[in-house]
Write a structure and sequence with these properties.
The protein is α/β, with parallel strands linked by helices. The protein folds into 3 domains: 43-376, Glycoside hydrolase, family 3, N-terminal domain (TIM Barrel); 395-598, 3-Layer(aba) Sandwich (Rossmann fold), CATH 3.40.50; 642-752, Immunoglobulin-like, CATH 2.60.40.10. Strands 13-18-17-16-14-15 form a 6-stranded mixed sheet. A 5-stranded parallel sheet has the order 6-5-4-3-12. Strand 7 (211-215), helix 8 (234-250) and strand 8 form a beta-alpha-beta unit. Helix 2 (44-50) runs antiparallel to helix 12 (328-338), helix 6 (137-153) packs antiparallel against helix 14 (373-379) and helix 17 packs parallel to helix 18. The protein starts with a strand and ends with a strand. The chain binds beta-D-glucopyranose. Beta-D-glucopyranose binds at residues 86, 116, 160, 213, 292-293, 511.
Length: 753
């Protein structure tokens, strides 16, 4: 329904409420009938069992457990009191558990097997933050397809990905798992990943259900500290945090995971507004919501539930359908239903949603469809997957600086010093959140470079961390050993060019890995400066899982490549860019700060009342640092250069607005450019950001070639969510900007009637 309202800036149109358009899946009547029939046969306990998810609890291919917790859970499985397991991997293990569910329980309802397949199963693809820097939606989709193909071949049919939390704070360790700071790009990337995981046929044996997480606001944990409180205004909630989730729901994501955090005083897991009002009612989401790991139980710590029983009632009544690992439902829901605290219809609703996804996956037709040993063998590390991984890894690399065209290196003439522990590390490049990978399976930089030249010598210089450092242990980065410095410095002084691979270890980002410093950890900055003192010809190859603040390097080092953690094919991808067989085309998806004190720093901020520098001190600024980032959102260079000209807006009527710009490759190599379109709504009933990304196009141009790039702007482009969660489109003046990054654009105007 459209209606006209009077607003501050004149006339506005409200289009629907919360949702701009609703594309959420319709249910299939045949499946719904089957669910009806099953629900009629299920006891209350069996229903609650479907809502209970446990972590893999015993070695499935070994003997059945005789006592303890594993024995209890094993017995529960046989009674149909577990609907899903996570972290059980491999055809044999999955088959064993599925056989118990199907053959030994009263109703034979198959299990759904969840796993954090975040950026690959065995073949590891770039961390999601890196991959997003490709701005290449096809490549991102294919990357998720590789992950789904290998995961499904190992028995997995549900991944807890993609994470679509918009993130502005590089201190938060989980920025590596998302697509950065922009909701528009984040939506596109998230949808591409869902398409890759779920394919076009969810019932196929090589597609898996995806999960939009963490609903909602987890990317805004205060001060970037893991699991911290989230307190954000409605405008940020509706315009920044929710849009990627909505986009995924519109594109049939099958599941949503709620979050650990409290949002505006209400834990996400017990949040009626988020899970019921918005997700299920307004967006018409038909899949199910899974809690985050024991996030139901954590509501007690949050001071929102008095005990586990209370937490169970709050969570289920708020629409959290499946309980991951807290046992709250299985212990308490039966009693809560009997006492009338939880209406049985809420249980039926949750179970219906869970069964619906199981039916859509085809698990009732063939519960063992993902359990084929032959396929498992063929799929893992398949050569076709390796080439996809290499392709997306190359596309993820961002060239930050290239003074005097130091890059690409020539494989013929130069004597190269290769320095840094990360250059010879085959584990760190796999990054965090690669649960099923085999350790030490990345191609290290050293091996990649060998394919282009033998004229290099390697010196470690310094380690990045010491002590046990893996998925569950903390790293100790206060390393004090400088004994490797001398060798590295001597080597650098005898070489023409120095390639230094510095950054973070693979587990310095990820869950539980927040940092207060954003520089190079440990002694690496010191090493960099010592090497620079003897040889300024340095190519700094950064390997890290979050934006870093490296003002000294940006000022002194002539060439800097942001290579993130690129997965299995790391060495090959980096070497291809270093030696110019691939021309870098990635663009940053998070602003790089000059200093940690600027964080959170993001391009799509509002204007303050005092944005401009004045002689006196009373304007919005720091007295010891600039406001601008070191490298802005959307930034990234190429070995060629591009010129923008001829920006035009043409509109025959308000619903047909076209923007065009000419992009010319005025360098001497073929290259790819991400052409970015931003708008600024100059006066609105709710203040709008100074810039908002609203379109992008990745094009390839040969030297001298020009191309006109066109964008079509619709009401969806111009509108925004007001503070009641309504999508509104207001007439008024807009800046229309197109350029190579968020800080470097051509600009024109458009008046929207
Ligand atoms: C994380 C989730 C993840 C879950 C299962 C939690 O700690 O927050 O993102 O999917 O564990 O491993």
């Amino acid at each position: 329904m459209k209606r006209r309202l009077q607003a501050l800036s004149g006339c506005l149109i409200i289009i629907g409420s919360i949702c701009f358009s609703n594309l959420a899946a319709q249910t299939n009547p045949v499946i719904e009938k089957k669910i009806d029939a099953l629900l009629r046969r299920m006891t209350l306990q069996e229903k609650i069992g479907q809502m209970n998810q446990y972590n893999g609890f015993w070695e499935a291919t070994g003997p059945a457990p005789k006592d303890g917790d594993a024995k209890t859970k094993y017995d529960m499985l046989k009674k149909g009191l577990i609907g899903s397991v996570l972290n059980v991997n491999g055809v044999q293990n999955v088959r064993k558990l599925q056989e118990i569910a199907v053959k030994e329980t009263r109703l034979g309802i198959p299990l759904i097997f969840g796993m954090d397949v975040i950026h690959g199963q065995k073949t590891i693809l770039p961390i999601p933050l890196a991959e997003a820097c490709s701005w290449d939606l096809k490549a991102i989709e294919q990357s998720a397809r590789v992950a789904a193909t290998e995961a499904s071949a190992q028995g997995i049919n549900w991944t807890f990905a993609p994470m679509v939390d918009v993130t502005r704070d590089a201190r938060w360790g989980r920025v590596m798992e998302g697509a950065g700071e922009d909701p528009y790009l984040g939506s596109k990337v998230g949808v591409a990943r869902v398409k890759g995981f779920q394919g076009t046929d969810l019932a196929a044996n090589n597609t898996i259900a995806a999960c939009a997480k963490h609903f909602a606001g987890y990317g805004f944990v205060e001060a970037g500290r893991e699991y911290n409180t989230v307190d954000i205004g409605t405008s940020t909630l509706y315009n920044i945090i929710l849009p990627p989730f909505k986009a995924l729901v519109d594109n049939q994501v099958q599941t949503v995971m709620n979050a650990f955090n409290v949002i505006n005083g209400i834990p996400s897991t017990g949040n009626v507004m988020l899970q019921k009002d918005i997700l299920k009612n307004k967006w018409k989401f038909k899949g199910f919501v899974v809690s985050d790991w024991a996030s139901g139980a954590e509501m007690v710590q949050h001071g929102f539930a008095k005990d586990l029983k209370d937490a169970a009632a709050i969570a289920v009544n708020a629409g959290s359908d499946m309980d991951m690992e807290s046992s709250a439902y299985i212990k308490h829901l039966e009693e809560l239903v009997k006492s009338g605290t939880v209406p049985v219809k809420n249980i039926d609703e949750a179970v219906r949603r869970i069964l619906r996804v199981k039916f859509l996956l085809g698990l009732f037709d063939d519960p063992y469809k993902y359990c084929d040993e032959k396929r498992e063998k063929e799929a893992l590390y398949n050569p076709a997957h390796q080439s996809k991984a290499l392709e997306v890894a190359k596309k993820s690399i961002v060239l930050l600086k290239n003074e005097g065209s130091l890059l690409p290196l020539s494989s013929q003439q130069q004597k190269i010093a290769l320095i840094g522990a990360l250059a010879n590390d085959n584990n760190s490049p796999l990054g965090s959140w690669r649960v099923c990978s085999d350790n030490n399976t990345a191609i290290p930089v050293v091996a990649g470079i060998q394919q282009y030249t033998r004229n290099f010598t390697y010196a470690k210089g310094v380690t990045v961390y010491q002590g046990i450092h893996d998925f569950i242990h903390e790293a100790n980065i206060n390393y004090t050993d400088t004994t490797g410095f001398q060798e590295a410095i001597a080597l650098a002084s005898q070489s023409q060019v120095v390639v230094m691979v510095l950054g973070e270890s693979g587990f310095q980002t990820g869950e539980g890995r927040s940092r207060t410093e954003l520089g190079l950890p440990g002694l690496q900055q010191q090493l960099l400066e010592r090497v620079y003192a003897v040889n300024k010809n340095i190519v700094l190859v950064l390997m890290n899982g979050r934006p870093l603040a490296l003002p000294w390097a940006a000022a002194h080092i002539p060439a800097i490549l942001e290579c993130w953690q690129l997965g299995t094919q790391t060495g090959n991808a980096i070497a291809a860019v270093l030696f110019g067989s691939y021309n870098p085309s990635g663009k940053l998806v998070m602003s790089f700060p000059r200093s940690v004190g600027q964080v959170p720093i993001y391009y799509n901020h509002l204007s303050t009342g005092r944005p401009d520098s004045v002689e006196l001190v009373f304007w919005s600024h720091y007295s010891d640092e600039k406001n601008s980032p070191l490298y802005p959102f959307g930034y990234g260079l190429s070995y060629t250069t591009f010129a923008y000209s001829n920006l035009k807006v043409q509109s025959s009527n308000p619903t047909d607005v076209r923007v065009s710009v000419t992009v010319t490759n005025n360098g001497n190599r073929a290259g790819e450019e991400v052409v970015q379109l931003y708008i600024h709504d100059k006066v609105a009933s709710v203040a709008r950001p100074v810039k908002e990304l609203k379109g992008f196009e990745k094009i390839t141009l040969s030297p001298g070639q020009s191309q006109e790039v066109q964008f079509r702007l619709t009401d969806e482009t111009f509108g925004f969510y007001n503070n009641n969660g309504q999508f509104v489109v207001e007439p008024g003046d807009f800046d229309i900007m197109v350029g190579t990054n968020s800080a470097s654009v051509l600009s024109t105007h458009y008046y929207k009637n």
